[in-house]
Every structure is written in C-alpha cells, then in structure tokens.
Specification:
mainly alpha, elongated
Length: 319
C-alpha cells in the first residue's frame, strides 16, 4: 500500500514503512536499523545518528515526488552522500548479482535465447557499474573535499550534472524482450515472472536513485560550492585587513615624504624641502614601498587621502 501524504518528524516510523514498504531499502541506505517499535521518525533519526530533515526530504521525494521549490540549505550533504554511497553498495553488491542468479535459475541453460538475455543483462550491469564507479571515484571524493573546506579548480558539480545520464534504458529493453519473445516453459515460467517483477522494481529504484542525485544532491552540492567561494572571499578580505593592521608603521618623516611625492616633487626637491640629503630621501622611499607594498604614485595618493595625509579637495584643486 502506498499512502500519498507528506511525512513529518512526529509521525511514527512504523506507519511510514507500513504505508510505503518500498522505503525499507531506503532505511538500510540511511543506516536505520529495524526494531524501532512505535517511536517517531525524529526519535529514530536522533538515536541512530541520521539527519531527520534530510531523511524526510528524501522520503517525501521518493513517495510523493515532492521536492523543495528552492535550494534547501537545511539538507545535510554528508547525510545524502552516505545514503547514495550505501545505495550503490546495495545495488552493485546485492541487487545486480541477485537478479543475475534468478535469471540463470529461471532460464534454460542450453537455449540460445537464454544466452542472449544473459549477455544483454551483463551489458546492462556493466553500464550501471561503470556509471556508479565514476561517481564513487570522481563525484563522491569531490564532495568529501568540499565538506572539509577544500574546493578543486578543475571540477565542479555542474560538470557532473551535464554528463549525468539515465541508465535504465537497457533494463527496459531486457524486460520487454523477455515478455514479448520468451517461450512458455511450465513451472520455470513462474520463477521467470517473479524475476521480471524484481527487474521492474529495480528499474524503478534506479530511476528514483538518479532523480535523488539530480533533484536533491546536485543543488545541495552547488549551494556548498557557493558557500565555500563566499567564505574564501571573506577569508581573503580578512587576511588583507589583518595584514594591513600588522603592517610596520610609517615614521613621521616617511609620511612627510609621501606628501611631497604626491605633490609631484623630485628627490632633490624633497631633500631641499626637508633639509636632508638625496640619499636619505631615496632610503625613506625604499622603506615606504616596503612597508606599504605600494609602488605607484596613484597608489600612494590613494593611501595619503585614505589616511588623511592630504586633503582630497586640495588635491583635486591642484589638479
């Protein structure tokens, strides 16, 4: 039985599963164990270390097709990552071999059509394995790095999304061939029908899995990327401010020389104005550049105005 409703944290987990038995595998992927009695969804999630909001978001998406209209900042990227990784293990290590075994048991080993069906299934299984292995070797480590505050420059979630393809085509082709062309074989036909039922269920599961990645996971990763970029800009600004605060202070004489330089005076004119030697002026200029890390007249002018060494109105009047 499938009940169309939005499940909430206060609902009992047993009611959620009773209404939607297809979520049993989802529980396992989230790491939620059975034997939860009459406890609520939030209680079970808290006890078993699962982010409740993310769990309910996935549940309501899979059951009702409900997804947040805008990017949901409350979704836990780590929880989704763990869920998808566990789903891969379930499908690659259990489901694919299990269906292969059931097909072998329900088909005649000596029949040429059987060999073709098994070959088609193996091709399909290979495509799925390649698809999921790519995510495990490329996307998942990238997301883990983001969660640790590290963002690569040669990869992002838009690259993944652009090449994220549907992998259910051969499953569809396989079951259609069996239904249309496989001859009746008495008792074995019952076993084949049961296997077909499993194939239908797993085709739906695979489609749901892909949709969770595209509709929930990709936007959550994109939001994390944006946050890291924003944090990086903030950090760089903070570093610049800290660097400026820790800058070696200018002497009064150096400030006087900055004023003279901004006014367009030469080294000799500055020396005459301040009653010092030209070599001393050059030494002061070198120290100014070292302390301020400014090497242009325009930069010195901006510094002088910002630090009230000269009056901005007087500077423009001189211009």
């Amino acid at each position: 039985m499938k009940r169309m409703k939005l499940y909430e944290a206060d609902d009992k987990m047993i009611d959620l599963i009773g209404d939607n038995y297809s979520m049993l595998q989802g529980l396992n992927a989230f790491g939620i164990h059975l034997g939860f009695g009459d406890k609520t969804v939030s209680k079970i999630c808290d006890e078993q270390g699962v982010d409740c909001h993310t769990f309910l978001t996935v549940v309501n998406f899979l059951i009702n097709g409900y997804a947040p209209k805008n990017t949901d900042a409350s979704i836990s990227v780590k929880t989704l990552l763990d869920y998808l990784r566990a789903s891969h293990r379930f499908f690659l290590d259990f489901q694919l071999p299990s269906i292969r075994k059931k097909l072998e048991e329900s088909l005649s080993k000596s029949d040429s059509l059987t060999l073709l069906i098994l070959r088609l299934y193996d091709e399909y299984a290979h495509d799925i394995r390649v698809h999921m292995k790519y995510e495990e070797k490329t996307l998942f480590p990238y997301v883990e790095a983001l969660l640790h505050g590290v963002q690569k420059t040669d990869y992002n979630v838009d690259i993944f999304s652009k090449h994220h393809s549907d992998t259910t085509g051969k499953f569809h082709e396989l079951k259609n061939i069996i239904i249309k062309y496989f001859p009746h074989n008495g008792l074995a036909n019952n076993q084949l029908t049961a296997t077909l039922y499993d194939i239908y269920n797993n085709e739906e599961w695979l489609c749901n899995h892909s949709n969770v990645e595209e509709v929930l996971f990709v936007p959550a990763i994109r939001l994390l990327e944006q946050k890291l970029k924003s944090d990086d800009v903030s950090a760089r600004i903070s570093n610049m401010i800290n660097k400026a605060d820790s800058m070696e202070p200018l002497s009064e004489r150096e400030k006087e020389i900055i004023v003279c330089l901004v006014q367009g005076m030469s080294n000799k004119e500055i020396a005459t104005q301040l009653f010092i030697s030209v070599n001393t002026v050059i030494t002061h200029r070198r120290n100014i550049f070292r302390k301020l890390q400014i090497h242009s007249l325009a930069g010195l002018t901006i510094y002088a105005i910002a630090n009230n060494l000269i009056d901005k109105k007087c500077f423009y009047n001189n211009e």
